[in-house]
């Protein structure tokens, strides 16, 4: 089995989607969201606080060539790769989330300071996990690596009598209209030759930096509004407004010989410059020339993380797609212990959970499976956020009190916590967790759910019902049986979200989709859900229509699609083909109706046609690894039913794979009768399964079975078999049926919600 590190391509997903024309079933799927991965190739460390990348100012990561777009193909604003310098803190694969960091731009120059902000052609780019390199057209070679809380830059200059390294403290965000982030307050000062420090307050978060530059023979100066301040040692700005902002920062300048290198090291903290200095020392040690050691350490960290799953394939392209998907799955969220700027206590802190909506079904179960200690760290960070700020976030960035993304979903943290609780992982105070899970369920949309039994957008009814089911698991763990029974009765209200006449969700507004996209989620009571639709055959018929079996090919949106084009596309009520997240679990809904063959057909079409190599290799926004982690699971032949401690089994896309779980235990997936999958090629169906040598008739594994390691042997064939058609995955109907609440608050003056519409809500946060 090939190690993953060498096959990772950090450039995958950075450009507009460029995949072969889909055929067969995949040709009938419709993509509403931007057709670009929105990834960046910059240096990152696994779940680290810091990233660093070339900066063009383009949407959305600051890297690349494209303008802001929320639908269709993004238009170009540059015809080639450009950079005005190199910035820190980038999003990974997200869409429109308003602000995009890119703080402390570092620009190596041989031009006058007056031209700061111009862009240079960017050539000879290379990247691997933890390292990024490129050459500016002025001949300066840049290399960047990062630690968990630091970045190290190394610049190689051509011969010049007055080279410069300029650090801009004042800029952030993007260069597109309304994309800039303005610091509210700032200070910076020189401490000693080659040493400086400072802090900016951006979006309410105080971000501190400690800088060390290996240039003892160079001049060190502050600058303001592109004018040098000879002899100045400190700049302070008590209140900055967009109308009063002038660029400011720090510069080192002096002569260089051809091939001379200069290293710049930056330590970061959200708790002041002294902690930033300590973070730099911890990450990089003391003294000059730390680049090579830091790159080696970060590379080793990535190798350890990427070797947590190894797959067997003779196809280099397939190895690249898988390895890069695993890499993208482990970049976010940013875990920054002892760094909360919003409360004084030490302990876990996390940001760039962008957003739970995208990651709770696939990426968080992947982290929980491979790195349970990091999952527990994230869970405690989320519990602290809830305690300090009053809510579990749907999204959480390096910002104060903004972008909660409540329109997207409700009670999603509950799903994550329920998985950890059912696995019995140590390190979480479940009494503490139960209090916050319970309180959070009563907020925002939870009020309508409790009063009327339904909340609109109606997808929140499903979120909240499942949130109560998840919270009941925690209540039972701590021994509060009466509370668990109360919550389980409330969980039965999922039925109120559906129209029994159609078997689909009620008319409502829907975020980035239609009721079709939300109607096939994997609920705790799938038996009841299928019964509501009219039984196995009727439910399968709805799924077949949704996935486009027998439907003609569709045309995807182009550049700046108009409203009529998007309305017609949404009216198809079609699967979004992994271009977006609302329906990413729906291929496995067939398994609950005894049709694992259909799951195999849909997943085969996705895995072979919706993911590829190269910069255009993703079908849509990667969304902090939400999309990539789906691919990881699907290609292994497993899928986590988030919150239910359950993994559904399907035909693997690799002959053999191996996962490192629970420390040193290994979970192996072997196949019999396997053939390498190809686009448009035959589907492989599961004929039989053995687990640790014993026949397994059921199409699922419990979380504990996977966590404890073992060997899953999957026999495959070219035609559907009987396996998985009789035994169904667990379903959890209520012990006592809770009568559905038929009163819809939207029909009453008591509701504060707007009138409903069957049109999708295409607003983006």
From TrEMBL:
The organism's place on the tree of life at top rank: Bacteria
SUPFAM superfamilies: Six-hairpin glycosidases
Biological process annotations from GO: carbohydrate metabolic process; glycoprotein catabolic process
Gene3D superfamilies referenced in this protein's UniProt entry, alphabetically: 2.70.98.10, alpha-1,2-mannosidase, alpha-1,2-mannosidases domains, GH92 mannosidase domain
Record's keyword terms, sorted: Hydrolase
InterPro entries, per database record: 6-hairpin_glycosidase_sf, GH-type_carb-bd, GH92_N, Glyco_hydro_92, PNGase
Annotated protein name in UniProt: Glycoside hydrolase family 92 protein
UniProt source species: Agromyces intestinalis
Lineage: Bacteria, Bacillati, Actinomycetota, Actinomycetes, Micrococcales
């Amino acid at each position: 089995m090939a190690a993953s590190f060498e096959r990772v391509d950090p450039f995958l997903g950075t450009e507009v989607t460029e995949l072969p024309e889909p055929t067969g079933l995949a040709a009938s799927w419709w993509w509403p969201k931007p057709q670009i991965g929105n990834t960046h190739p910059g240096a990152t460390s696994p779940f680290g606080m810091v990233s660093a990348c070339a900066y063009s100012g383009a949407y959305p990561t600051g890297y690349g060539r494209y303008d802001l777009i929320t639908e269709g193909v993004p238009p170009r604003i540059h015809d080639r790769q450009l950079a005005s310098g190199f910035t820190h803190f980038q999003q990974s694969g997200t869409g429109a989330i308003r602000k995009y960091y890119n703080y402390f731009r570092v620009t190596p120059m041989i031009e006058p300071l007056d031209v700061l902000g111009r862009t240079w052609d960017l050539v000879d780019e290379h990247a691997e996990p933890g390292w990024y390199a490129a050459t500016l057209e002025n001949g300066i070679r840049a290399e960047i690596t990062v630690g968990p809380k630091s970045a190290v830059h190394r610049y190689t200059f051509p011969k010049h009598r007055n080279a410069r390294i300029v650090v801009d403290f004042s800029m952030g965000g993007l260069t597109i209209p309304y994309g800039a982030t303005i610091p509210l307050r700032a200070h910076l000062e020189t401490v000693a030759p080659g040493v400086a420090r400072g802090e900016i307050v951006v979006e309410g978060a105080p971000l501190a930096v400690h800088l060390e530059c290996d240039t003892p023979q160079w001049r060190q100066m502050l600058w303001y509004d592109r004018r040098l301040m000879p002899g100045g040692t400190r700049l302070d700005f008590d209140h900055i407004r967009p109308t009063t902002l002038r660029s400011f920062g720090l510069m080192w300048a002096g002569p260089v010989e051809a091939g001379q290198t200069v290293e710049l090291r930056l330590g970061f903290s959200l708790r002041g410059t002294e902690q930033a200095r300590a973070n730099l020392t911890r990450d990089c040690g003391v003294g000059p020339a730390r680049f090579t050691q830091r790159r080696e350490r970060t590379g080793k960290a990535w190798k350890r993380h990427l070797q947590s799953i190894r797959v067997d394939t003779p196809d280099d392209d397939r190895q690249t797609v898988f390895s890069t998907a695993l890499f993208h799955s482990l970049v976010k969220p940013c875990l920054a212990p002892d760094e909360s700027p919003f409360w004084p206590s030490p302990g876990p802190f996390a940001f760039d959970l962008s957003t739970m909506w995208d990651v709770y079904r696939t990426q968080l179960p992947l982290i929980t499976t491979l790195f349970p200690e990091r999952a527990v760290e994230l869970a405690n960070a989320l519990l602290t956020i809830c305690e300090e700020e009053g809510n579990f976030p749907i999204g959480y960035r390096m910002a104060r009190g903004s972008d909660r993304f409540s329109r997207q979903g409700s009670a999603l943290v509950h799903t994550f916590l329920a998985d950890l609780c059912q696995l019995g992982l140590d390190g979480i105070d479940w009494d503490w967790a139960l209090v916050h899970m319970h309180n959070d369920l009563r907020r925002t949309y939870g009020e309508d759910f409790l009063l009327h039994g339904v909340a609109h957008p109606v997808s929140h009814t499903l979120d909240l019902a499942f949130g109560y089911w998840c919270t009941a698991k925690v209540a039972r763990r701590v021994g509060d049986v009466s509370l668990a029974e109360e919550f389980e009765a409330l969980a039965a209200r999922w039925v109120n979200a559906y129209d029994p006449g159609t078997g689909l969700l009620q008319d409502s507004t829907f975020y980035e989709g239609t009721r079709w996209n939300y109607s096939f989620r994997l609920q705790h009571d799938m038996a009841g859900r299928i019964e509501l639709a009219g039984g196995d055959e009727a439910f399968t018929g709805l799924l077949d229509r949704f996935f486009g079996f027998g439907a003609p090919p569709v045309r995807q949106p182009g550049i700046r699609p108009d409203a009529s084009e998007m309305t017609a596309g949404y009216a198809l009520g079609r699967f979004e083909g992994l271009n977006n997240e609302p329906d990413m679990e729906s291929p496995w809904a067939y398994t609950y109706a005894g049709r694992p063959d259909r799951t195999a057909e849909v997943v085969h079409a996705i895995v072979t046609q919706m993911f590829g190599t190269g910069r255009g290799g993703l079908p849509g926004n990667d969304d902090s690894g939400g999309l990539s982690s789906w691919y990881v699971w699907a290609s292994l032949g497993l899928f986590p039913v988030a919150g239910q401690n359950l993994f559904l089994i399907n035909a693997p896309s690799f002959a053999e794979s191996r996962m490192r779980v629970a420390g040193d235990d290994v979970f192996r997936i072997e196949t019999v009768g396997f053939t390498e999958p190809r686009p448009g090629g035959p589907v492989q169906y599961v004929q039989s399964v053995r687990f640790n040598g014993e026949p397994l008739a059921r199409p699922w594994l419990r979380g504990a079975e996977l966590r404890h390691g073992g060997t899953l042997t999957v026999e495959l064939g070219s035609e559907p078999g009987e396996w998985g058609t009789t035994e169904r995955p667990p379903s959890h109907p209520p012990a006592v049926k809770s009568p559905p609440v038929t009163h819809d608050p939207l029909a009453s003056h008591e509701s504060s919600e707007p009138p409903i519409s069957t049109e999708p809500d295409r607003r983006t946060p």
